[in-house]
């Protein structure tokens, strides 16, 4: 899939993805690296490139158009950055001269099967509750 019918841009992106993956793997992860195929390494590298582009402040449309990814892939990487990492910059060490680092609210994970957890996991089911809570908050102000 990655080696046939690709234009020059796709080939270059795949090369960059492979390099990004190689940089992310440390000596401690060589066993993991040996288990992955070239295609899997490229896929992981592409996700690293997407994360770096998000950190650099690129928009969704810019990244989607440049790397020819689906909006879902972008959303998954952005979700990972927001939920799993305290700050975007911890996903990839940015140079010291970078001045714009997006601020991310750190969420405390809700206890499994609690009201808050279920509300976060199934927001559509709790829409009326959420709206009611927001109205009460506004009324108290």
Description:
With 141 residues, this protein is mostly helical. The chain folds into two domains: 8-107, no CATH class; 109-141, no CATH class. Helix content is 60%, strand content 0%. It is built from seven helices and no strands. α1 packs across α3 (38-55) and α3 (38-55) packs across α5. The termini are far apart.
List keywords for this structure.
2 domains, elongated, 0% strand, mainly alpha
Count of distinct structural domains: 2
Radius of gyration: 19 Å
Q: Low-confidence stretches at least 5 residues in length (pLDDT < 50)?
A: 89-99
Alpha-carbon distance between the two ends: 57 Å
What is the overall pLDDT average? 75
Give a short synopsis of this structure:
By secondary structure, the chain is mostly helical.
What is the secondary structure topology, with strand pairs?
Blueprint: H1 8-24, H2 30-35, H3 38-55, H4 60-67, H5 71-84, H6 115-121, H7 127-140
């Amino acid at each position: 899939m990655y080696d046939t019918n690709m234009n020059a841009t796709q080939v270059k992106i795949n090369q960059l993805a492979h390099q990004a993956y190689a940089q992310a793997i440390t000596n401690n992860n060589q066993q993991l690296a040996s288990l992955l195929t070239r295609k899997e390494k490229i896929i992981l590298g592409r996700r690293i490139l997407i994360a770096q582009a998000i950190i650099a402040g690129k928009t969704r449309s810019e990244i989607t158009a440049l790397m020819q990814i689906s909006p879902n892939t972008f959303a998954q990487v952005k979700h990972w950055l927001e939920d799993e990492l305290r700050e975007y910059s911890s996903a990839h060490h940015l140079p010291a001269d970078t001045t714009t680092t997006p601020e991310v609210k750190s969420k405390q994970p809700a206890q499994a099967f609690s009201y808050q957890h279920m509300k976060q996991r199934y927001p559509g089911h709790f829409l009326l509750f959420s709206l009611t809570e927001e109205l009460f908050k506004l009324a108290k102000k």
